[in-house]
Design goal:
Elements lengths: L1 E4 L18 H8 L1 H16 L3 E5 L10 H16 L3 E5 L19 E3 L5 E6 L5 E6 L24 E7 L14 H5 L5 E5 L5 E4 L3 E4 L15 E8 L2 E8 L3 E8 L5 H9 L6 E8 L6 H8 L2 H8 L5 E8 L7 H4 L2 H14 L2 H8 L2 H8 L2 H19 L4
Parallel strand pairs: 1-2, 2-3, 3-4, 6-7, 7-8, 8-10, 13-14, 14-15
Antiparallel strand pairs: 1-11, 5-6, 9-10, 11-12
Length: about 400
């Protein structure tokens, strides 16, 4: 028995953090990146003759899908139907209630979970009886944890699998909060999780974890992206990562740099096998003043883009010297940290953001990357003020 666990496909997602200078061909690649990753996964599913595919939430980037995306999904599901591969699909916080919206018809091999916890059963090619339990979001926020509603493992099946789109947390959190202990109590053989875009294992045996998304969508989602091919081994279900993202996001930190030509040469030798959207952070403490000014004014960034480096597009060029932010100069580190802790303790940013801003922005700050971004910007502002004698 073998199957695919593919979470957070986000078909139709426009990459964020990119400007209007993108070359036309690269723009087309980006527009089709999630579709390319999805169809590649389908190709490999058919070639590997898997028994079924699990899609635990956010197949779509929103509840409203374009005719092009509808056609892609319908066509690929029909290919799987021809190959006798079943699909088990739940909707998450991005595509909640997508099944209630008009879409092209899906073949009978596609099984969709509704808002109530439900269990499907199937027999695999090697006559294994498998139970698959899951649910779908009906609203963007699912503040009730549903792990407790999942039934105890069915003793009549060979394997019992849970599909769950959510995060570890406490009742009232936004995305179907759960505890690993709640899942372990069900005695399932595998939990296919969705929602987190980074591959993450919460428990080894039985496996409880996220496959991550299949295509990075912004510069915080770096590295290879793909799905898990799960195979049976000694009565355990073991996931193996398979990369399919056609475009990678990456970050390069450079400690020493003295000239523009040196930077160009450095990037020309940067290893890459796929098209890479690259953020470059120069951390050198001592740069010529003219070099820094050309960095701040984006002249060097424009020059790098005009070089047409092979399979590299420089998204950001940031000057972030290691010794810029010395709080002992003007700010006592102890009082800074105490003030920050006071704000962090009394002000729940998630409560505010949840009702005020779009999901992608909210998640950016909640996972900590947003705070890191703010710190980097603080360093840049302090350095600029020092240069202008404003400290």
């Amino acid at each position: 028995m073998k199957f695919i666990h593919a979470g957070d496909v986000h078909l139709g997602n426009p990459f964020s953090g990119l400007d209007q200078q993108l070359p036309y061909e690269l723009k087309k690649q980006i527009q089709n990146a999630t579709i390319t990753a999805f169809t590649t996964m389908i190709d490999q599913a058919i070639n590997s003759a898997v028994d079924f595919i699990l899609l635990p939430g956010d197949l779509y980037n929103s509840t409203q899908t374009s005719p092009i995306i509808q056609d892609v999904v319908s066509t690929q599901f029909e290919r799987l139907n021809t190959a006798k591969i079943a699909v088990y699909l739940s909707f998450g916080n991005h595509d909640f209630a997508a099944d209630t919206q008009p879409h092209l018809p899906w073949p009978d091999n596609v099984h969709v979970f509704n808002q109530d916890v439900h269990t499907y059963q199937l027999s695999t090619q090697d006559d294994k009886l498998v139970a698959i339990t899951g649910f779908s979001y009906q609203t963007q926020r699912q503040t009730k944890g549903l792990a407790g509603d999942f039934p105890i493992r069915d003793r009549q099946v060979d394997y019992h699998i849970g599909m769950y789109h959510g995060t570890v947390g406490t009742e009232g959190d936004a995305y179907a909060p759960f505890n690993v202990s709640d899942m372990l109590a069900k005695r399932y053989d595998y939990w296919a999780l969705g929602h987190i875009h980074v591959r993450q294992t919460l428990n080894q045996v039985p496996f409880i974890g996220y496959s991550g998304n299949m295509q990075g969508l912004n510069r915080k989602e770096t590295g290879e992206k793909g799905y898990y091919l799960v195979e049976e081994n000694n009565q355990q279900l073991i996931p193996h990562f398979v990369p399919v993202a056609p475009i990678l996001w990456d970050t390069l930190c450079i400690d020493e740099m003295s000239s523009e030509d040196e930077l160009i040469q450095y990037l020309a030798t940067f290893p890459r096998e796929k098209m890479t959207l690259l953020s470059v952070i120069i951390q050198a403490n001592h740069l010529p003043e003219s070099f820094k000014q050309r960095l701040y004014s984006h002249i060097i960034l424009d020059k790098l883009r005009q070089e047409e480096l092979d399979r590299i597009w420089v998204v950001k060029l940031i000057y972030n010297p290691k010794d810029v932010l010395s709080f002992t100069d003007n700010i006592d580190q102890q009082y800074w940290q105490e003030a920050f802790n006071e704000i962090d303790h009394h002000f729940r940013i998630d409560d505010y953001l949840s009702n005020q801003v779009p999901t992608d922005i909210r998640e950016f700050f909640l996972d900590g990357v947003g705070m890191d971004s703010i710190k980097i910007r603080m360093k840049q502002i302090i350095e600029e003020r020092r240069q202008n004698h404003e400290d």
